[in-house]
Amino acid sequence: MKSHWVYYNSVRIFLADFSNYGANGAGVKVETQYIIQLLNNEPDNSVLSLTNVDGTFANEDILRALSELLPISNKKIKRRAVTGVTGFRRHFLDAFVAVVGNVKFSVFDTVEEAYAWLAKP
Description:
Blueprint: E1 4-8, E2 11-17, H1 25-39, E3 47-52, H2 60-76, E4 77-83, H3 89-100, E5 106-108, H4 111-119
Parallel strand pairs: 2-3, 3-4, 4-5
Antiparallel strand pairs: 1-2
């Protein structure tokens, strides 16, 4: 599994790493199950999270896996940043949010920008 905890400027941040899965819905599903296990141990509304989807493409299986993760992650995540959605892919993210609803996040061009935003008090 690729997702893990990192520290940026002494701030604990969870990296939900969905990068480079291409169209592999089964791989994304396994990653989401791993993330659910990790987040279940965290207090509600306490997690700062960066979701990286660079190199992963929206298809029905991937969107289904991510939508199954959201009810769990939304309870645990205090603030969420997303990277890897540039150009036309941003429209897919907007469509996904419109379908599943109740997802709050800020999109950043780079992982560094996202970490810096999450680490701000």
